[in-house]
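new request in #modeling-help
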Amino acid sequence: MLRQRLMALLRRQRLDQDLNDELAFHLTMRAGQLEESGVSHAEAAQAARRQFGNVAMIREGLRDMWGFPSAEALWRDIRYGARVLSRAPTFTIVAVLTIALGVGANTAVFSVADAVLLRPLPFPHADRLVRLYSIVNGSPIGPSTGDAHDFATESHTLQSLVIYDVWRKNVSGNTPGERPEQLRVGLVPGEFFTALGVTPLMGRVFTPEETRPGNDKVVVLTERYWRSHFGASPSVLGQSVRINDEPYTVIGIMPDVIPDWLDGTTFGPTLMWTPYVLTQEDFGALHHGDRGNGTIGVLRPGVTTAMATAELERIANELAERYPVNRGVGARVVPLADTRAGDLRPTLVLLVASVAMILLIACTNVASLIMARHTARRHEIVIRASLGAGRGSLVRQLVAEYLMLALLGGALGLAAAWIGGLALSSLHPANLPQLADVRIDARVLLYTLGISVGSGVLFGIIPALPATRGNLGTAIREGGRSGTGSKRRQTEQHALVVAQIACCVILVLWTSLIVKSLLRLEHQDSGFRADRLLTAHVTLPPARYPDADDAGPVERFCETFSERLRAIPGVRDATITTFFPPVNQYSRSFTLDGQAVSRLDDMPRASFGVVDDHYRTTLGIPLVEGRDFAGSDRATNPPVILINQALSQRYFADHDPIGRRLVLRQLSQGRPDSISTTATIVGVIGNTKNHGLAVEAAPEIIGLARQMPDMNAGFKYIVVRTSPEPFRAIESVRDALRSIDPELPLAEVATIDAVMAKQTTDRRLSATLLGLFTVGGVLLAIIGIYGVISYFVAQRTKEIGLRVTLGASRANILWLVLGAGLRLAAIGIAIGLIGGFAMGRVLSRFLFLVTATDPTIVVGVPLLIAGIAIVACYLPARRATRLDPVIALREA
Amino acid sequence: MAKTKNRPPELVQGTLDMLVLKALTRGNLHGYAVAEWIRATSRDVLRVQEGALYPALHRLELAGMLTSEWAVSDKGRRAKYYSLTAEGRKHLAAEAQSWHQLSGAIALVMRTV
């Protein structure tokens, strides 16, 4: 029976036709019979019709029986619904706006979540693409060339494993007079593209021959670089691009389908690729510690990431026995799609949860509006029922009406989300490249339609059902006035208020925790004076600035440049360095001189950088002990180093570090002894962050670049302290660079303030959005509570009148109403606190120097919500105290 | 008016379903043929109103006692043919038995002087 009805629904068109045919056949047969008995053709047809009765009505009855209303009936419902809604414009506008807010917020967040978490990657076999990480001290890092080679050859779960790297290089096209610009260039094998399943728009990818030394002067350009620098010229193949002062031949153009999030955009997007030159030596025993390569793996069909991880962990254990630098190093395989969200995942989970709550608040608001309206409409419904409308058609009518309301709200919400999306993408931060893919597409539309209809069912149809039930006679007699003041309806409304308050508590709780964390994060002591510092990056191409054995040219450049920077009017100090706070991506193993370490993996590691003798003064880091670097620390003198307080406290807790010596070891090159440098500690400086703002400063060692030529590579930051606004000095800085080497671009120009602000972009984004949502949610809830309490007062008019007559004071009445509101608020707050803490685990990722049970917040939020509840109840309560008992008693 | 005098007796409430089922024991019939068979078999006494016949047919079909298929009638037109299902047969048997009991009982009562 149910199946038949479903079939009927699916084949509605067909059944409609069948009904018509069946009845028409009957009429024809009857007319034929009459004609045989001698009646004329025209009369026979008429007589048959007459005898049959009302064909249209019978057909309608049969249609209803099959459970599918005719198109006319649906149209009638829609027109009727539209009329009803337009006759109550205030209700309609409030309800539509409320739904629009809920649906809009959800659509906006879903469009982001879809782009960042859900939508499949734009690659064929995307479900088999993975990334492989080595796990060092619990944190993932790209594998070394040697490890990756062994993983690839020994694994049976991986079909292929590609490693690649991304470097900053100075690039110029072939336009005459074009100055080089610093770009990110990917170093990849040809299989990089094969693994992703991307084929060039034209030309080809690298052959294995081209990844051998000497054959690698070929380049594959991205479509966008080809368009911007070659005007999309079809004859680009065979032309050349200069990369780090060497010509590379263009052999292929890649479509822009490889997303920027693949490797982050810390230094801008990757715009071209050259071959990753690896020799047998790179896979040998000496190259297992040099971690940090990017990877793309392809799983064999049917293999899960868990199976691959298990296998690679086993291989990692074998490697640990073969190579000392692999001790304690694990392996993990992660689906490529899961690496897309990165730091945004917890933010999104939080936002999805909070907009779900907004929608819930919105739905409960509309539901309570509708319940109040049913009181008024009960009369209408009863009359329609007594005029012969079946329960089915009554329900159908209400469904049409509320679905219309939901869809109107949904459409408005979609428009709002679209505008909001435009606003978001206009301020789309460059360091969140995942947001580039956010768009309103068919998936988002389907989602919006789904939640609109879903919320229509939630707020409209469920509360509407009881209205069509029940005893018609009683309802008519009661005139639809007091008939719905039933206990049950009241309980339902109170449940709605409790749910709203609980949702509010959760929203406000989360927002205040996150805002407090953000403020703590942004206002913590940075350990240096971060204002008025300008920074930029200069890449010195090895062709002209060799860094292998003789760093003379690099050092000469640095000395001249820093001198000229300091000579600029308005520049108070300047330094050339390999890092600046709050991030130092380099680290080095070291031992205390004279304290041998028996196992390589027991060797301590510290953040490490080489600077000049103006680093500390330019940044304004306090000197805690000893002395700073000085001009007298010549290149030929024995090397001296500064350490930070963290290192001093950890390794020199009970004796003076000044004058002690550290042995710095560059394990990654695989020749631990030949590269070790012994240096004397001359000073201890204050801690500055070196692993981002949210992580305590790690031990750090700072050397003098000129004394450590093997570490004096061609990637240099400048940091300039200015007396006026930092950007005013930028042209002079460019001039100074041009006067030394006109072919060097000044890249990544920013103030350190801006660099630090970038660190908190995602937190600030989530705090802002969450804050907006929370304000919206709380406003909705105030309206909701106000509505329910007003209704409570209206229903109790008679009771209140009676109480006043019997001598109740105004304060008594005020308390009667406020007490009812506060009781509900108390239950809601309790549920909200429990719910908020239950989700605390998600939250802990965001919290910095604030615990999920922060006392001011745990006390403050309930007080705030109780205050809001009091405000929302106060107006109706005051109205109750002003009731004239005589009128109240007469009217009720 | 003559029409009123000759008006066939009203069908006893609830017997239409039984009559329709009975008609279909003779094989597959379309709606018109069901009506005609009842009229002819009752010697023109029982005239089934179309307004009642089709709802009954569709109700029985939805209740699983009839199935239907479209076929070409002997007049060469597309028509919907109904046939009994096993459940329909069972139902008919039960209905018929209680009908016989009822009509026998009524006859007994009416015959008593």
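bot summary: The domain at 2-111 of chain B is CATH 1.10.10.10 (Arc Repressor Mutant, subunit A).
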